[in-house]
Amino acid sequence: MFLKFILVVLLFDTACNAIHPLIQPVALTEEDIQNIPMKAAGMVCEDVLFLACQNQFNQYLNISANTDWHNTTYMIEQLDQFYKQDLNSGLFVLCQARSRFERCLGGQYAACLNRLNFVRHNIANSEAYRFVAIFKMLEFECNGGNIQATKNWPCMYSIYASPTYQKAANDCMASYYSATQNQPDRICAAGQTLCKCLELQFTIGCARGILDMRWFECERIRTSFEIDGFCPNISCSTMVFGSAGFVIDPEMVEAHNRIKWDFYDSFANTNRRAKRQVNME
Ligand SMILES: *[C@@H]1O[C@H](CO)[C@@H](O)[C@H](O)[C@H]1NC(C)=O
Ligand SMILES: *[C@@H]1O[C@H](CO)[C@@H](O)[C@H](O)[C@H]1NC(C)=O
Ligand SMILES: *[C@@H]1O[C@H](CO)[C@@H](O)[C@H](O)[C@H]1NC(C)=O
């Protein structure tokens, strides 16, 4: 009985000391960010449209209107609230906001999510990089990784929220930093090692034997390194093909698609209105 009480207190304590931020892009050093060359996007990003879409994103999530590229630390804090145990009030909401954002920018999405777009407005390269990395990570979590995230979320969430993962993340990052210090040509190789290092957290406990969770973590980390096509060599695929753990639940796909299409249907109208408002300004 007493032991049970202690266990409950311990679990409660762990939940209250939840790690913040829970999920974020890889914290590359300023030096590494400077070493990732920028590439121009073919199109122009119209400032008025971009501002309107960022406002819409913030409003949809009910987060502060100050959430944007000026302070990506703040932005990560704001988005962190949506990494919850409950998908419906958490990741799904975040993903819907993301889809709206992409739809809102339409053909300018790639040009707006390009570091040069910010740098031309005198935003620091590091903030520009992090802003782009946040959206690239969300893009993966919500599209490429969504089936995995949805199906295995209770387990994945418990791993991300565990002190063990936090410790591993600190250790893996420390190795990454020491491998790349003054050695920019090592960024991609060290990035691959970082993927492998963090992925290991998804081979134990509830994730044991479910290889797609491991893949999810690797791909999520990879998004931070592939900005502007920088590390095309980082690979996460080898563990997936032929993996017994990679199962797509047809019911889940169908349910997910239904949510997506319902959302797009209702969004089409809102987006047309938003575009008209932008054009009037
Ligand atoms: C935002 O606030 C509105 C109005 O209070 C509410 O209906 C909506 O569910 C909230 N959305 C989120 C994501 O919290
Ligand atoms: C950015 O946001 C963080 C976290 O909220 C805050 O601590 C910091 O002071 C902000 N930086 C600036 C320059 O406003
Ligand atoms: C990428 O892989 C190719 C072929 O294996 C290799 O020649 C090249 O050096 C690698 N590049 C990096 C940046 O690791």
From TrEMBL:
Signal sequence range: 1-18
Keywords assigned: Signal
Protein name according to UniProt: Uncharacterized protein
